[in-house]
Design a protein that fits this description.
Helix content is 32%, strand content 22%. The chain has helices at residues 19-27, 71-85, 102-111, 128-131, 156-166, 171-174, 192-200, 247-262, 278-289, 310-321, 342-355, 361-374, 411-425, and strands at residues 7-12, 45-51, 54-60, 89-95, 118-123, 146-147, 180-186, 205-210, 218-223, 229-234, 265-271, 293-299, 330-332, 386-393, 398-403, 433-438. Keywords: GTP-binding, Nucleotide-binding, Repeat, Ribosome biogenesis.
């Protein structure tokens, strides 16, 4: 999908329930041919529509029949299937005066197999007396139908309000920079997909779900209670390169690494019941080297024998004994039970703010002078002097440090500055980069007589 693509609503139902009439009524212009004769619409038709500032694509489909097996009916059914597959929402239209038919039941049975929202609409409800009959349609399994009269325009506004309410956020909004992209990465079977499912089952508005192949990365969008949109990128499991055998797994690993490149934050899931593995640390290092925010997620915490002090003790031990985890936020959860899964979004939001933080030149230079005064650079062939520190870019933050001898700054001293920076600015989970540059001498001012 690109940013300009509109979301799609397909109107489906058996012949002569008023699909084309409803199509024309929503568009407020006669685009589809209508007739009392059954089966007037054969080819699906798509038109752009809008309601209260929301634009969408509306598809008018041919009537679905099961009794006839002619070539035309088969082609119509195939077109309807394609329309449903491409849709974000299906409007299932029935004849409110005729009551549920066997064909309605068969269509409902097929729609229930699809992973697409369905809005049941009872047409031809011209009079209040007809409304009492529409509750028989609840047997189709899609709740209470929305009563309308497409011919007379009755109930169309309420129908469109319900459609907009059920539609996900527009794709253009979902793919904007406002969405915080979190890639869930880790070894196979650590619970990445389970975590996505657990988060999406929470009381939030699930706004989109765009799957690729079964081994591809899958983007799922949700909106948190504070209005922040998150894109959860579920990826295939990463194993050591030497353990990857077939071409499909190699392609899956490539797609996962591409997901790391396009995310803002990498949430590295660890099956803590198996302990921290070498491959877990390798994945964290890869994400950090890509300049991504990093969160270590200890999943399956419910399988660990513990008391109230276990987690804090484990975090202290990991942070002190594993260098790469020293400034990485560590959270525990059980994706299967849903225990503490919300902490991922809370922590990701904090890291995202750090990735986008702007530091003033004054506070950076103050930090630099304090750090270098308390622990000067070791003496060598030349005395290293630090002059100034300034921020160059965001996501990740890159800082330029001016010195008289950038090539002489020792690696051990750079590590010292990194440690002091993380401690001073409390930016755990946010990768930072220092670039050392030589301070240029100012040219002597020339005076013209």
């Amino acid at each position: 999908m690109n940013d300009k693509q509109l979301q799609i609503i397909a109107i489906v139902g058996r012949p002569n329930v008023g699909k084309s009439t409803l199509f024309n009524r929503i568009l407020e212009r006669p685009c589809a041919v209508t007739d009392e004769k059954s089966g007037t619409t054969r080819d699906s038709q798509t038109q752009a529509a809008d309601w209260n500032g929301r634009s969408f694509q509306l598809i008018d489909t041919g009537g679905i029949v099961f009794e006839q097996v002619g070539n035309i009916e088969a082609k119509i059914r195939e077109q309807v299937k394609k329309a449903i597959r491409s849709s974000h929402l299906v409007v299932f239209l029935v004849d409110g005066q005729a009551g549920p038919t066997d064909t309605d039941q068969a269509i409902a049975h097929d729609l229930q197999k699809k992973n697409i929202p369905v809005l049941l609409v009872a047409n031809k409800v011209e009079e209040t007396a007809h409304e009492a009959d529409i509750y028989d349609f609840m047997s189709l399994g899609f709740g209470e139908p929305v009563p309308v009269s497409a011919m007379h325009g009755k109930g169309i506004g309420d129908l469109l309000d319900k459609i907009i309410h059920l539609l996900p956020l527009e794709t253009a909004v979902l793919q904007s920079d406002s969405a915080i992209k979190i890639a869930l990465i880790g070894r196979p079977n650590v619970g990445k997909s389970t975590l996505v499912n657990s988060l999406l089952r929470q009381d939030r508005m699930i706004t989109d779900n765009m799957p690729g192949t079964t081994r591809d990365a899958i983007d799922s969008y949700l909106s948190a209670s504070n209005g922040q949109i998150y894109c959860l990128i579920d990826t295939a499991g990463l194993r050591k390169t030497t353990h990857i055998s077939d071409d499909i797994e190699k392609m899956s690993a490539l797609r996962t690494r591409e997901s790391i490149e396009r995310c803002d934050i990498a949430a590295v899931l660890v099956d803590i019941s198996q302990g921290l593995q070498e491959q877990d640390l390798k994945i964290i290092a890869d994400a950090r080297d890509e300049g991504k925010g990093v969160i270590a997620v200890l999943n399956k915490w419910d399988l660990v024998e513990k008391d109230s002090k276990t987690f804090d003790a484990l975090v202290r031990d990991l942070s002190s004994s594993v260098q790469i985890l020293k400034y990485v936020p560590i959270i525990s959860m059980s994706a299967r039970s849903g225990q503490r899964v919300d902490r991922l979004l809370e922590t990701a939001h904090k890291v995202w703010l750090l990735l986008n933080r702007k530091y003033s030149r004054e506070e950076l230079s103050s930090f630099l002078f304090t750090a270098t005064d308390s622990h000067p650079h070791p003496a060598g062939k030349k005395f290293v002097i630090f002059y100034r520190m300034a921020q160059k870019s965001l996501k990740p933050p890159v800082f330029e440090i001016l010195t008289n001898a950038p090539r002489l700054v020792r690696e051990s001293y750079i590590s010292y500055l990194y440690n002091k920076f993380y401690e001073h600015f409390e930016c755990s989970g946010c990768p930072i980069k220092f670039e050392f540059a030589k301070k240029l001498r100012r040219k002597p001012r020339e005076y013209v007589l």
